[in-house]
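Data availability (excerpt). The following record was deposited with the supplementary files.
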Amino acid sequence: MTVITFSASGEPRRQERPRARVLRGKFAQFYKPPMSRAYEASLRRIAVEVMDGRPPLEGALSLSLRFRMGVPKSMSKGHRARLLAGEEPFFGRCDLSNMVKAVEDAMNKVVFVDDRQITRLFATKVAHERPGVDVRVEAFE
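Predicted structure:
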């Protein structure tokens, strides 16, 4: 079974909605917000390095993601300790499904041909001292 794993540090970001601007002739042009593009580009650079020149995976895939979310410093010490110990669920500010989409889009044509190949998905969001995302892609043989 082929397994690709990597981790990226830094606060995980969500896939933002596309923005639009009107060009001459009243045509709309859609684009990704700069922060979303920068986050996806950083994940893509790590994925390219991990793939080390190998072609993208083909066939059915399983994707496991663990989003390590930073806890606000303004939070009380007791609440912070309970979150970091896993005693309470951490909701954070970002929608889990939008964060998954950002990671999938960053790995398109690098780790796998297209994100439609993902037939099994596991994603979790946890409070952590070191924010980031842990990625594991498994190819079904």
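Summary of structural features: The chain is about 25% helix and 30% strand.
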